[in-house]
Specification:
Elements: E1 2-3, E2 17-21, H1 26-33, E3 46-47, E4 53-54, E5 66-70, H2 81-97, E6 102-107, H3 126-136, E7 141-145, E8 161-164, H4 167-177, E9 183-187, H5 193-203, E10 206-214, E11 220-226, E12 233-241, H6 245-256, E13 261-269, H7 275-280, E14 286-290, H8 296-299, E15 305-308, H9 311-323
Parallel strand pairs: 1-15, 2-5, 5-6, 6-7, 7-8, 9-10, 9-12, 12-13, 13-14, 14-15
Antiparallel strand pairs: 3-4, 10-11
Helix pairs in contact: 1-9, 4-5
InterPro entries: Pribosyltran_N, PRTase-like, PRTase_dom, Rib-P_diPkinase
Pfam families: Pribosyl_synth, Pribosyltran_N
Catalytic activity: D-ribose 5-phosphate + ATP = 5-phospho-alpha-D-ribose 1-diphosphate + AMP + H(+)
Length: about 325
């Protein structure tokens, strides 16, 4: 089910701005562009016969104008992650060579963000590489949602980075759909405690934690629940859900400890591999994700998955960044 909550005032008017929407989750980009009437470029990226990226002639005059590029670099029906990433780089180059005044890159999901450290000897830090590419191309600002690790912002030395959080949408969803009296917010690991604490504070409810113990091959061996969930409505909140294997194990643990209802909320619904099968056979009442990544285009409608529209928050962040207003009230 696709859900839209109007949490932020909108309808913006900005002169000298042009919005470009890539093929990665194009529906999200078009939703954002609707908040800026008359600013959407007609440019649609396509391919040469050999598969190389082709930027058709840009009909709008963008000299000395603020250009916004919206591209969700993740699972897509329009190509691989790397195809979508290369689209973004090629379009940035075209905008810079056309003398754009500024180039704001909106990445609903930051690519390669889980590769943010050296996890083994001679391993790359791929998210740092993406940051270097963007800075080298001379972009003016980067806007993204729910980074897997907030330190990725520190990979940018010269470019301002705005990291937006989907938490207000999950809070609104919980208020409208869940039993607040018996609610417990669950952090799936130690790294997500701050996120869970912020949500629990807004909802004035308890918080629980799942501690993961890993074996010698860095695979999850056991899970230990910290907190009492007997007869409780549990809401696990995380930044993303990929194959769903770990999330479903967490649901099994909560169910074994007496939880009556279990929900899972994540900003990014990567949903690769057997994710849909895992979710359908799990104890989750619902899995709630945002539309930062293509969902309905890949899977159609699924009764166990609710999708929250966060395009209005993205549009507000774009407006505030161009007008020099504070974004901190949103994050």
């Amino acid at each position: 089910m696709f859900l839209s909550y109007n949490l932020i005032s909108h309808s913006y008017s900005i002169n000298d701005m042009v919005i470009f929407v890539g093929n990665g989750n194009r529906d999200f980009g078009l939703k954002v562009a609707k908040y800026f009437p008359g600013c959407l470029s007609n440019c649609i990226i396509n391919r040469f016969s050999d598969g190389e990226i082709r930027i058709p002639p840009i009909q709008e005059n963008i000299r000395k104008k603020d250009c916004i590029l919206i591209q969700s670099v993740s699972c897509s029906t329009q190509g691989s992650v790397n195809d979508i990433l290369m689209e973004m780089f090629v379009l940035i180059d075209a905008l810079r060579r056309a003398s754009a005044s500024s180039i704001t890159v909106v990445l609903p999901i930051f690519p390669y963000q889980r590769q943010d450290r050296k996890s083994y000897s001679r391993s790359p830090i791929s998210s740092r590489m993406i940051a270097t590419f963007l800075e080298t191309q001379g972009v003016s600002r980067v806007i993204a949602f729910d980074l897997h690790a907030s330190q990725i912002q520190g990979f940018f030395d010269r470019v301002p980075f705005d990291n937006l959080y989907c938490e207000p949408y999950f809070i609104e969803y919980i208020k409208r759909n869940l039993d607040l009296e018996n609610l417990i917010i669950i952090s799936p690991d130690e790294g997500g405690v701050k996120r869970a604490s912020r949500v629990a504070k807004e909802l004035n409810c308890k918080i629980g934690l799942i501690h993961k113990e890993r074996d010698t091959e860095n695979q999850i061996d056991t899970m230990v629940l910290m907190g009492d969930v007997n007869n409780a409505c549990c809401f696990i909140i995380d930044d993303m859900i990929d194959t769903g294997g770990t999330a479903c194990k967490a649901a099994n643990l909560l169910k074994s400890q007496g939880a009556t209802q279990i929900y899972f909320g994540a900003c990014h619904g990567v949903l690769s591999g057997k994710a849909i099968d895992n979710i359908n056979s799990s104890y989750f009442e619902k899995v709630i994700i945002s539309n930062t990544i293509e969902i309905e285009e890949r899977f159609g409608d699924n009764s166990k998955i609710d999708v929250l529209d966060v395009s209005e928050m993205c549009a507000s962040a774009i407006y505030k960044s161009l007008k020099g207003e504070s974004v901190s009230t949103m994050i």
